[in-house]
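Lab notebook, design round three. We kept the backbone fixed and only want residue identities now. Task for the bench partner: fill in a sequence for the structure below.
Input structure tokens:
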């Protein structure tokens, strides 16, 4: 004789939701939390990250997969490259 199937196996197969990505960030210049906002305009061909307090800005060229966190991290990487260049 066979066993009955339990309902538990059906509930365990549901996919997990992806975590939400940040949309506002800490400024690398003035260190104010949640002041950097990213704007992506694919139709115009630019992406901008700007601080609302110190008015620092960073521009880059986006692609279809670019998200606000990508623009912010490009800005941070560019700041690190500039700081390394000044030490030599």
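Proposed sequence:
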């Amino acid at each position: 004789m066979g066993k009955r199937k339990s309902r538990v196996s059906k509930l365990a197969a549901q996919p997990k939701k992806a975590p939400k990505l940040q949309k506002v960030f800490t400024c690398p210049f003035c260190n104010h939390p949640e002041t950097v906002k990213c704007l992506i305009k694919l139709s115009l061909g630019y992406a901008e990250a700007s601080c609302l307090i110190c008015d620092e800005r960073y521009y880059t060229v986006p692609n279809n997969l670019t998200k606000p966190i990508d623009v912010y991290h490009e800005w941070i990487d560019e700041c690190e490259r500039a700081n390394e260049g000044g030490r030599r």
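Keep this in mind before ordering anything: The radius of gyration is 22 Å.
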